[in-house]
Amino acid sequence: MRVLILGGDGYLGWPTAMSFAAKGHDVYVVDNYMRRNIAQATQSEALIPTPNLNDRANIFKSLSDCDIQVKIGDICDYRLLETVFKEFQPEAVIHYAEQPSAPYSMIGFDQARETLNNNLNATFNVIWAVMEHAPDCHIVKLGTMGEYGTPNIDIEEGWLEIEHKGRKDKFLYPRAAGSLYHTTKVLDTDLLWFYVRTFGLRVTDLMQGPVYGLSTDESDQDERLLPNFHYDDIFGTAVNRFLVQAVAGVPLTVYGKGGQIRGYLNLKDTLQCVELAMHSPAAKGELRILNQFTETFSINELADRVQRVGNQKGLNVEVKSIPNPRKEAEDHYYNPAHSGLMDLGLKPNYMTDEVVAQMLDNVIKHKDRIDESKIMPRIKWK
Amino acid sequence: MRVLILGGDGYLGWPTAMSFAAKGHDVYVVDNYMRRNIAQATQSEALIPTPNLNDRANIFKSLSDCDIQVKIGDICDYRLLETVFKEFQPEAVIHYAEQPSAPYSMIGFDQARETLNNNLNATFNVIWAVMEHAPDCHIVKLGTMGEYGTPNIDIEEGWLEIEHKGRKDKFLYPRAAGSLYHTTKVLDTDLLWFYVRTFGLRVTDLMQGPVYGLSTDESDQDERLLPNFHYDDIFGTAVNRFLVQAVAGVPLTVYGKGGQIRGYLNLKDTLQCVELAMHSPAAKGELRILNQFTETFSINELADRVQRVGNQKGLNVEVKSIPNPRKEAEDHYYNPAHSGLMDLGLKPNYMTDEVVAQMLDNVIKHKDRIDESKIMPRIKWK
Known about the structure:
12 helices; seven-stranded parallel sheet; about 375 residues; homodimer; three-stranded mixed sheet
């Protein structure tokens, strides 16, 4: 299958590219290095330096004999994206090409407007490139569980049947996200849904929770093939922050009360989910929405887990609450459905103690690179 | 009160500016002439030529001794908008500054992307200018009833309480609009709601139906002060199209079955609604949504009305169905709430036969200017 991966230099894009290439697909990746540039500009570089995308593709080729075609460029430039579509004629496009940092989107006007315009125009251009140059191509778009926020009712998979004053209809599940970044993903979904129902596109929107882990069949071959590991306050997740804090010997910083519950998944499962979605495409005129995570836990539970496993390894791990830089519920109802991907065949890799221990080992190996000044929140929502 | 009117050259912006100035408010208008430029580019000029915005303000000043301060410029340029905010320090901003044509937004890639970027960046910049330079300023944003589409349940005013599996929460009413233009208004609302709940802005979002009429206390003084009357397929409404067709002696063109029901209002009532909203501002952190129309009827009922009144005037009016260029339900449930503005004090001016007759008289006066080639749909959704 000809698979176009947008945002192919990213934490998810790169391992997806390797995984699909290893499985025999014809893989083309595009990236504009926006994340690398923002990381440099905000002192948020990843823990482990990664070769550039062309170099990574060459290293992977030398080890696996699999080709990954690379284009460095911005898909917000429609002419560039059109050129790629005409040349490659993708059968599936995996769209990761968005500014992915919530804190970055909350720094100020410039960063917010950059996030809005990058994310909306990227999605808009993908829609049009498919309509004009590959109308049967299946769009697999990465959304986020963060689109839903933390409502007081069960979260369904994208859609909600509503009965109101004795009448019924089905709608996109109502969304209220916690950052401008997450809000741009809400707008993406609205935009996709308009073009899907009006022009009969095929779209799968994967509402993904926070992803953890670096290990995949391909990245395990050579450290130069590892995905980016960010532990900073801009691109880092709570999981990565806790792992690094445990290794650095500083307390794990829980934001506020720590009752924030999210749905998490292993990087290996992201690869599975995207592949499962790709092999069973949405119908023409269908916006299929799947909630992509395998288990839920609170920030406090996550901190406890890292503390327990860290202490078993002889680290002396403390946990401490700090004022929450975000505006979010710290104690809330959370019951999101997530059977769709299981029904497609997902075999979850849960966050076992063994998995946490492996992740800690990875960080320990690079302990000398940890820059503690990157860890604490530098951006506040207020 | 210091009132900033964005899109002050438009069909609604200009009469709003005159009305507020006549009532003693300090009025500042900004417009980038986007509508005029698109009208020229697409052969969609208004029936009655209107002086440019500076000239109109001068004519109005000479007749009423009321000042309207004019700036020609693009609010998507944040530096320009900041300059206006710093200089004028508005207490209320009325935001009409959007590309308002559904058919234009459906022509192709360029027009769609122009609509998306203009409308989203305009709203985004207004939000930020208020946050940074006038945090207590009340934003009155023109949305559209078209955001809701035609759901099978009653349309409430912006919000919906949902009970699901025994639990309850309140959400933005789910939206599914019928054009890219209308979809950008959905995105506007999502964006406003994020910033309102996160940073405590005051916003009123007026979900307006199609507006008709040219007559206001101020525009009646001099024909050069009339709002724009568009009857073309780009900016014209069904009301204006039917009026012009009746006068030109060509059949009124009903799109498809004609069962499309919408909520309409008189231009005089738009002025009332915006003023009522302005004088009773939303609270800090409140996104108040009001459905702005006074009566609903179907396209067939509208055609019948224009035909009946036209025939009374001695015109020989025929009605004919043509294939619908849009993708929309032509026979649907429609029961939208609209008590909020009535509760604030709105006194409706309904579309009586007398009102239709006056509108026909206005068109008859300019009968020789009618260009029939502008009337039929040139843009199809498919």
